[in-house]
Amino acid sequence: MKNALNKRLFLSTGLCLSLLWLAGPLKAAESTAMPASSPELSLMTGREPGTYYQLGRDLKKLAGRHQIDLSVIPSAGSLENIFKVYEYPSLQLGLSQFDSLSLVALEATISDDGDAEELNKLVNSLQLVLPLYYEEVHVLAKAPEIKQLADLNDKSIAVGDAVSGTYGTATILLDLFKITPAEQPEMDAVTALDALQRGEIDAMIYVVGSPAQLFTGPLANADGLHLVSIEVPDDIAKNELFQTFYKKATIADGTYVWQKQAVPTLSVGTVLFTSNKDQNDENCQAIGRFAKIVYDNLDELGRTGHPKWKSISIDREALLKAPHLSPCVGQAFK
C-alpha cells in the first residue's frame, strides 16, 4: 500500500521539483527597515488566513525586538516551503508538517526516476530548527448525513493545493481509512470553503492549527456546516505509517462559534526547519540566535500571540539530541 500511496502523492512533488527553475520572484511580506547591522532572515509560512502565517507574524514581532529582520513570506504550504527553502539561499527558514518532510524523504528512497538524485540532495540538506506544535485535521461538511469519515465514500472532497501539507495528509488518510471519493478537487482552503457553502463539493479537508482564522466568527451560509469526526479503528491505530505521523486529538466544543460539540480528530506535528545548502556563517549564526530567542520567549508568545503558542513546550536536552538538528541551533543552545 505504501508504494502505491507514495507514487500518487509524489506525482505532485516531482512536478513541483521540476518547476522550481520556472519560479518567479517571491513575494516578501511584513518586512520593515532595521539597523544596517541587523541580521536578515526569511520565513516561508502558509496562506494568509492560515495558522502558519499568523505564527510567522508573531515571530516577526519577536525577532524585531531582538534586532533580527525577519521577512514573513506567504506560500501554498508545507511542500512549497520545503522545495523553496532548499532552492533559494535567501529563504533560510520554513514551516512544515512532519509528515510532509518525512514523505519527501521516503520518496527519495524509493524513487527510480530522474528526480531521485535531486530529491536525495534536498532530503540530506534539511535540518531541524525547532519542533513546534500539533495541528489538527479539520474535515468540514454541510450535509447532515456526513457525520464521520466513512460517510465521505463517493463524495466530492477538496484535498488542498497539490503543494500544500493538507494535500499530503489528506491523501494518506483517505488511503489509510479506505475512503474512495467520487472526486478529489485540488483547491486551497478559502476556495474550498466557498465551494462547500455553495454546494459544489460535499466536504473539505484542511490541516491547520486550531483555532483556524478561516473558520472563526460567523460564516456566511453557515447553516449545516459542521466538523466531521475521525474515529480511529484499532487496525489503523496499529499501522506503522499512522503511528509515525499522527496522534488522536480533539477539537474542543466552542472552538468555533458554530461548533457546539467536541469533535474527535487527528493531529500532525509542525516543525521549523532550514536547509544547509549554500548556507553561510552569517546565516548560520542568525538561525541559531533566532531559535534561541524563540525558545527563551515561548511564554511571551503564549501571552501575546496565536493561541497555538500556549501548547508549545520544548525540552532543551531532547532538542539537542534530536536527529538532523541544525548545528547552527546546537551551537546557539550550548
Tally the structural domains: 2
Gyration radius (Cα, Å) is 20 Å
| H/E series | HEHEHEHHEEHHEEHHEEHHHH
Q: Give the beta-strand count.
A: 9
Name the CATH class of the largest domain. Answer: Alpha Beta
Task: Outline the low-pLDDT stretches.
Answer: 1-32
Helix content: 25-40%
* Average of per-residue pLDDT values: 86
Summarize the main sheet.
9 strands, mixed
Which structural class do the helices and strands define? alpha/beta
Instruction: Give the helix tally.
Output: 13
Question: What does the overall shape look like?
Answer: globular
CATH superfamily of the largest domain: Periplasmic binding protein-like II
By CATH, the architecture of the largest domain is named 3-Layer(aba) Sandwich
- Share of residues in strands: 15-25%
List the SSEs and their pairings.
Elements: H1 2-18, E1 40-44, H2 51-65, E2 69-73, H3 78-87, E3 93-97, H4 98-110, H5 116-125, E4 126-141, E5 157-158, H6 165-176, H7 189-197, E6 203-208, E7 226-227, H8 234-237, H9 240-245, E8 246-251, E9 263-275, H10 281-296, H11 298-304, H12 316-320, H13 327-332
Parallel strand pairs: 1-2, 1-3, 5-6
Antiparallel strand pairs: 3-9, 4-6, 4-7, 4-9, 8-9
Helix pairs in contact: 1-4, 4-5
